[in-house]
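Appendix C. Worked example: ABC transporter permease
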Amino acid sequence: MDNFFKERLARHQKKMMRYMRYVLNDHFVLVCLFLVGGLGFYYSNLLKQLPADFIWSLPIVGVVWWFILPFGSLATLVEPADMTFLLPKETEMTGYLNKSLRHSLPFPFLVEGLICGALMPLVVLAQNSSFNRFFPYLIMLWVLKYSLLTIEKFASYQETASLVKKIKIGWFLLSGGIIFVSLYIGAIIGMITALALMAGLIGWLNGHHRLLDWTFLINRENQRLHRIYQFINLFTDVPEIEAKVKRRRYLDPFLSKISFKQENTYLYLFARRAFRGSEISGLFLRLIVLGSVIIFSLNDFIFSAGVSALFIYLIGFQLIPLYGQFDYVTLTQLYPVAKKTKEKALQKLIAVLLATGAVIFSLCTLGRISLLESALVFGILVIEITVFSLIYLPIRVKKMEA
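Step 2, the predicted output written as structure tokens:
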């Protein structure tokens, strides 16, 4: 079973690397570097402004560490056919699940390490200590995460649902207690307590011998992969994601404004695809909400303008794949509509959606910066939308058709 898991893991990683070429494109990496750099600079300035007696430092750190623990679930890589073909090997599946648990550790460990390191300045500020406590804190978080994955592995067996629910509630409460004890009493005490919790859980759960719940295993893995594919689908088409369309009658007044003319053929199609397709509309709303929350928290003109421009670019970039959404439909190939008309339709739709985002982002800056600066932010976004629609978008469309 060890070789079987290695083969399946290699196939899965090869598939993910193929998708990562589209996710980690030059534009996305550049935007991430700009965003991380801006947030890091803003965070650095914020730390300098905090008083030495800022009482909320440890509570903030404790809550963030506590709520990042569930991030990253058990990756078993099981498939629907395993219910039939691996059933004779069920007695050997313990080793398979142990392999999957070890495979599930690096990514959440990396995330916890980055967040722990990012929040350590707050801990140092509150405790008036040094960064030497970073490793005990990090080990504590890693051990608590390992304990949770052990519980998830135990949930793979039959007749464990109610017990696992109670164990998870207890683990969540104990984890919060351990984190705050480590922050207010001592990092070493928190680490030792976390190790004791992990040892107790492993010793107790490994003493239960049950048959695997194949249906639960398969459904859980399918849900995990679906979340991954949803993220990848923001950058490229994923065959594993089925498109969902919703009626959304409340948007009819906007869609009805598109008159039935030949030059509006693709505008009609693109608008309905954007508004009624769950992935496009969901992406637009998520970016609008996330951008609005971040912008509303800023009180600096340069950062407000930079973050607003960044999110306008992200929204526009993610809308570009609309251009090829109907290429597979035979009737669109028969339409007597020029490609230039198709490109102009996409330009018009993206410009309208980005203008909506620009208005929302500009309104979020009101009260945080001066009225004149808010107007300047809106002006900057209008210029960006014009450049994006009239210059950048045609270049991207030409590359897509090449």
